[in-house]
Amino acid sequence: MAVAFFTACDKPSQSGPATLTIYCAANLKKPVEAAAAEFKREFGTEVQLQFGGSGTLISQLRIAKRGDLYLAADDGSMNDARKFELVRETIPVARQHPVIAVRAGNPKNIRTIADLLRADVKVALANPEAASIGRVAKATLTNDWPQLAAHAAVMKPTVTEIASDLSLGAVDAAIVYDSTVPQFKGLEKIEVPEFAKREEVASIAVLTFCQQPAAALKFARYLAAPEKGGAIFKTNGFTPAGGDKWAAKPEMILYAGGLNRVAIEKALKRFADREGITITTVFNGCGILCATMKTMGDASNPKFPDAYYACDLCFVPPVAEQFPEAVILTQTDIGIAVKKGNPRNVKTLADLAQPNLKVGLCNAEQSTLGFMTRGMLKQVGLNDAIRKNVVVETPTADLLVTQLRAGALEAAIVYRVNAQSQAEHIEFFPIQHAGAKAVQPFAVRTTSPNAQLATRLLDFLKANRGDFEDAGFLWRGDEAPLKSKDIVVPDWLKDK
Q1: Nearest to residue 189, comparing CAs of 140, 147, 133?
Q2: Residues 316 and 427 grouped into a single domain
Q3: What is the predicted pLDDT for the residue at 496?
Q4: CB proximity list for 365: less than 8 A, separation 6 or greater
Q5: Which residues, in sequence order, are bridge partners of residue 256?
Q6: How far apart are CA 415 and CA 401, in angstroms?
Q7: What does DSSP say about strands 239-240 and 278-284: parallel, antiparallel, or unpaired?
Q8: For the segment 69-114, what is each residue's pLDDT rounded down to a tens digit?
Q9: For residue 59, which phi and psi values (nearest 5 degrees)?
Q10: How far apart are CA 250 and CA 302, in angstroms?
Q11: Res. 12 pLDDT band, cuts 50 70 90
Q12: pLDDT-based confidence at 9, cuts 50/70/90?
């Protein structure tokens, strides 16, 4: 069982306390200021905050092209930031929805959106071009918005400004987020049906031009962590979105089939450096990996993997309970590898049965490839004949390639990817069988304390498609996720 450790490098530029610049939606000011103060107290990192409407901040970022993090109040604003290629990693921190805010006791007896249009009611709205709440209100109140905007006594660029006007008595009502109301004295909220299902997620994202991503992501994780920023958001009247369990330097465990090592090893190092974390990756045959997980009993074991990257879909169902969704990343053929020149003229499965041929296979109990090979050989009726020539069984195909090159084997069943890395020494012949391909899925354990981190790793791998194609894989990372429980193992792979 090969274990690799990928730990973030301590770069000189990040050895001392960093100074982070964050562009933050005005509605989130109180909890973010409090969290930034705690973060500085714990780690010595100065956090400079610039507040404004979510839309206004995007305009500023498009011009300035500097800073570390952007904290938007709604999904639409974050989508705009992605559209303009301003952000990379995104972490949700809080959930909120629009309400009508009135002064305590509701002196104007405002109960509905229609009441806001009464002649005796002065309404404050946020500008939809500048502020998240204005944008969300306009999108939700499609038919009523034009009349409401025309009736408004004031329209300002941030939600905090209109809430302040209401608190001071300058207006009678305002459309704000539910989280805004407890931040101002003398206000109460009125829930209305039009806004009941309009939940927005406030998220923090690393800016594409950030020069210190590890420090930025550390603060982003801190802000979302239930024990840290999550608790502060809750105290300030927000509903926390739920982040990973807090750790100053998270340690993530990844189980990966040996086949995948050639494609992901360098990417894992880059990801660990960017996130400022440690990744412990266990590379082995998927049969061994699944057996190891089964031996642990349940996912409460601290050594249970946060993510699992299998060599084929058939080794996802055994652990579907812990990994309910699988994302296909790549595919590779299964074939016969021989030494350059092919001295024994081996090209088909039937050729592997010729007398006195030294054949190597992967172990069916330990590896995906061995399991699939056994199924194919049984289905075509060649299992017994070929097994007479088998001189070695290994947990991973790369070991077969090593022995083939050394002369201990004359033929072996391996993945195309294994043979491609040794193309000047080895020839590869695809097996003519419908099942002679392996599909590699990546799955995140939903109960993992590092579930968001593992999901970011998946996104990082998908963004580095070239690594997989350079290694010889066929890319399939743009396909929709699969429910693990719905993955069907072909009949020819089922033990009979």
Answers
A1: 133
A2: yes
A3: 47
A4: 287, 371
A5: 283, 309
A6: 10
A7: unpaired
A8: 999 999 999 999 999 999 999 999 999 999 999 999 999 999 999 9
A9: -60, -40
A10: 13
A11: very low
A12: low
Distance in angstroms (rounded) separating the CA atoms of residues 430 and 333: 7
Rounded Cα distance between 461 and 330, Å, is 11
Indicate the number of domains in the chain: 3
Percent of the chain with pLDDT over 70: 98
DSSP 18-36: PEEEEEEEGGGHHHHHHHH
The model's pLDDT over 103-117, given as tens digits with 9 standing for 90+, comes to 999 999 999 999 999
Distances (CA, A) of 350 to 84, 335, 383, 416: 57, 13, 10, 19
Alpha carbon separation from 4 to 7, 199, 276 (Å, rounded): 10, 42, 17
- 316: its two tokens: 């996802």
Residue 116, Cβ neighbours under 10 Å: how many? 25
Residues 132 and 173 placed together within one structural domain of the fold: yes
Strands 187-190 and 98-103 come out as: antiparallel
For residues 141 and 70, membership in a common domain is answered with no
Residue 420: give its domain's CATH number.
Answer: 3.40.190.290
